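Schema walk-through. Below, the input block comes first and the output block second. Nothing else is stored per chain. Lengths vary across the set, and this one has 151 residues.
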Amino acid sequence: MSRMKNYLIINIKPLLFFLLISSVSSLLIYNSWQTENLNMVVKWTFFLTIILYISFGFFLNLYDKWYKNIISVSLIFIISSTIFILKSMNNPYLEESLIYHLYFLINLPFLHILGFSNEYNFPVFPILAPSVLLMVGLFIKYLYYKISSTR
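--- output ---
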């Protein structure tokens, strides 16, 4: 039980960042859905989302072991994968469920690369991108501390 508790404690901050960035990005796109500048908003929201994930990754806790840093963003990957798998099952009971809405919350910020159709060219991108981009920010933080400690 202690390992599970530690795992959740390590992942709570990245998960909150993930929910915040996904929510804000999705709201930006949702609020411009019926406007003529939807394509521009989708494009800039995509770039903003990438910048925010990397920036927020810099504010994550840096652990002494490399695998702890990977574990610290793994819950986002697990949740995204689970939601993607459940949505891919095409169950009619999931049509208006929380899973369905969470699926669009995760995918909407990446609409610029996914496209507007249901035939996604990169279906795994929204699953991997948040965890990988947070890890990039964490790696930049590691490099910053490494360079500043050698001076």
